[in-house]
Amino acid sequence: MDRLQAMTVFVRVVETGSFTAAARQMGMGQPAVSKIVAGLEQQLGTQLLLRSTHGLTPTDTGQRYFERVARVIADANEADTLARNSLADLSGRLRVAAPTTFGRLQIIPRLGRFLSAHPRLEVDIELDDRRVDLVAEGIDVALRVGPLHESAVVARRLARGRRSVIATPAYLARGPTLISPKDLTHHQAILYTRGGTLRQTFRRGEESVDVTLGSRLRLSAAEGVRAAVLADLGLTVSADWMFLSELRTQAVVRCLRDWTLPAVDLWALLPAGRLTSARARAFMDFVTEIIQQVEAEQGAFD
């Protein structure tokens, strides 16, 4: 039996908790399964399983080996799927990381059609504004908004999101005049501390204006920025997609509409040095469809 087959047997033993159950699932004899695992332990020079009358449990080394080997087997299965060029029969588990607000507003409401298209697929979505470690956390694909700082990833830009100065009519009604970008220095800006900046560059045709906003309120989560704006606490410079429903109902408005701000990039990140799984490709295609839909309906992306 080759190395990959031995790994597969070991993974099945850990998952089922016994040689007998693993043998039954794989259509093999129990002695053969036990012999394969013993041979793997001998080849590696370490014990992978603790054997007792209560069953089998992996050692610490065995658990770490199991987690890595399970990923290797999943990648091998994905390679087979890619070779067959079949996205219609995806199965297994897809682990996704996405910024909380983008996931809540744009991904989750539309996720039903992705799940319906792939009924055998399990999806874990980590909603968090922090920059996750794809390899350490076993993430298949991560969505990232803004500039990239990682080097050990494969990055695919999915879209460029338009940005605007956003505020509620109530805040603007009681605030100072806001006619030109320079007027922003007299306003209270709500700052997103994970990637946001108080210095902004506005353009109108050939004209360019640099402005440093004043801020008393800084928040580490985009959800907090949304809540603060909707509570009339100030204005913010934001990607339009963060406030699409409120823009539609005019709960908030775009300010300085004849001026433009640099767009913000939306990226899909993949672990470097690993075959891109069919599951990850299908999810990236799904997000691209969402972006196209949002752009067609509400014009938030380029």
Automatic annotation (TrEMBL):
Molecular function terms, GO-annotated: DNA binding; DNA-binding transcription factor activity
InterPro entries (UniProt xref): LysR-type_TF_proteobact-type, LysR_HTH_N, LysR_subst-bd, WH-like_DNA-bd_sf, WH_DNA-bd_sf
Coiled coil: none
Domain of life: Bacteria
Keywords attached to this entry: DNA-binding, Transcription, Transcription regulation
Signal peptide (from-to): none
Protein name, UniProt field: LysR family transcriptional regulator
Protein family (similarity comment): Belongs to the LysR transcriptional regulatory family.
Pfam families associated with the record: HTH_1 (PF00126), LysR_substrate (PF03466)
Organism this protein belongs to: Komagataeibacter rhaeticus
